[in-house]
Amino acid sequence: MIKFLDLKNQYENIKEEVCLAIENVISQTAFIGGKYVTDFEVSFAKYQEAKFCIGVGNGTDAIEIAIEALDLPKNSEIIVPANSFIASSEAVTRSGHKVIFCDNNSDNYTVSISSLKSKISSRTRAIMAVHLYGHPCDMDEILKIAKEYDLKVIEDCAQAHGALYKGKKIGAIGNIGTFSFYPGKNLGAYGDGGAIVCNDQNLAKKVKMIANHGRIEKYNHEFEGRNSRLDGLQAAILSVKLKYLDEWTDARVSVADYYLNHLKDIKDLVLPKREDWAKQVYHLFVIRVKSRDALKLFLQDKGIQTGVHYPISLPKLKAYDYLNQGKEDFCANMFDAQLLSLPIGDHLDKKDLKKIVNCLKDFFND
Q: Which residue, 117, 130, 279, 280, could crosslink 164 as a Cys pair with Cβ 3.0–4.6 Å?
């Protein structure tokens, strides 16, 4: 079986360091806050080229806290791309605002700038730039629109740890950026975890207070916050894994390059585009094919695991029936039945890649 993702294999390669990190946290009972969380926050801020990093409980909390920290007027409209995980949109609604969907590009699957512009109204207060599948959004255009309409920019970086936009790390390009450390992410914890990055000291302080019951000092609560903290065990594990992230990213890019080079002549298969100005970190390698379900079953029978991200566009979910956007002429609303994610990661070798490519060619040549 060629696995879609192999976290056990990754763990075996760094087992000694991870076990030592866990042992240190437990022996020092540094479970909440403390040295290991601080060390990771400092390291991750440096890695993402941001001045500040605050660890939180998970990636969804990260988005909700970021939205709250921006202090938008109640019932503000926030524009979110139609193809993403529901965390991007539910964070908006659960923060007391209204989600407005725009389309994704049909080639790199990031925010469609033309669709984004068409969704701006007098009630729009923020844009969520989702760096989907690990490919950066066109941040210059998004920031240009944000400046013109006086909007905040939230970067959802859950799938894009270390991605570059025109040579600059994503996350702190807009007003605030959010990360998930769900185990399957490029930088994943051994449980839930998340982080928020920014370059604004006051904003960072507010984020930290919201995530810790509205306080900086124990029992001195300046307002009602919430409990969303990255724990010491996950922080220590992430610090170990962060040292290997560039190496793992290079492996992902090599796999993607192999796919792009060896699948380019299959006319019924649409490959993802990588913009010249982007360093795409390939959290996912997503192809598009009209016979998606048949191909998925074919590969499964050949011992190749795949994924679908995402099988239902956000506007078409039952959760958003009330918005009546599920039938809009969006690429995202049409392509959700065609998207298929191929295996990608440092666990794949040339033999695996050759088999995957040959199976794909066999499917389309039948």
A: 279
